[in-house]
């Protein structure tokens, strides 16, 4: 690897890289794999954390909608009782008007919650990065050893 390649790719080139033992090469590869896995996990955590925040906002809107829907029943009873006397409307109309108002509020909050839930997405960057890493490892082939003058193989007879 040339120095210019090392600068553009960000890899570290050691002066005696050709003199490293197999154990050192395996240790280096293991350390690089470990760093890669840690980086992938950090990316997934960051993306999931953002989506959890969106999910919490949607859940809060649903909870508020549920509270309004639950409180609608007793409030409707009181509103109807006092509304008949103050407005001169019939009992049925008083229940209908107040109940419809609370159901409209609950519907709006449910709509907001659904919009928040639709914004929650899978960690796309992490998935793409993991697929890219897997593709790189599938194309990796063992590096052929260079045969020197002193390490030529000896032909053996099969007799």
Low-confidence stretches: 3-8
| Global structural class | mainly alpha
- The separation of the N and C termini measures 45 Å
Shape annotation: rod-shaped
Radius of gyration: 34 Å
Main β-sheet: number of strands, strand sense, barrel status?
none
Helix content: over 70%
Measured by DSSP, the beta-strand proportion falls in under 5%
Give average pLDDT, whole number. 76
Pattern of helices and strands: HHHH
Describe this structure in words.
There is one protein chain. It contains four helices and no strands. It is mostly helical and 159 residues long. Helix 2 packs antiparallel against helix 4 (124-138). The radius of gyration is 34 Å and the shape is rod-shaped. The two termini are 45 Å apart. Mean pLDDT is 76; it is low at 3-8.
Task: Name a few traits of the molecule.
disordered N terminus; rod-shaped; 4 helices; single chain; 159 residues; mainly alpha
């Amino acid at each position: 690897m040339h120095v210019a390649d090392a600068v553009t790719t960000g890899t570290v080139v050691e002066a005696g890289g050709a003199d490293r033992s197999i154990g050192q090469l395996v240790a280096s590869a293991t350390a690089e794999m470990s760093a890669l896995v840690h980086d992938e996990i950090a990316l997934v955590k960051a993306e999931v954390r953002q989506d959890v925040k969106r999910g919490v906002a949607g859940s809060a809107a649903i909870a508020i909608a549920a509270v309004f829907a639950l409180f609608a029943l007793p409030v409707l009873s009181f509103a109807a009782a006092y509304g008949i006397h103050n407005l001169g409307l019939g009992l049925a109309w008083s229940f209908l008007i107040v109940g419809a108002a609370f159901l409209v509020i609950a519907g709006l909050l449910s709509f907001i919650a659904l919009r928040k839930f639709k914004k929650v997405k899978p960690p796309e960057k992490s998935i793409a990065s993991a697929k890219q890493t897997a593709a790189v490892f599938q194309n990796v082939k063992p590096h052929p050893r260079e045969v020197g003058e002193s390490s030529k193989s000896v032909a053996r007879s099969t007799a």
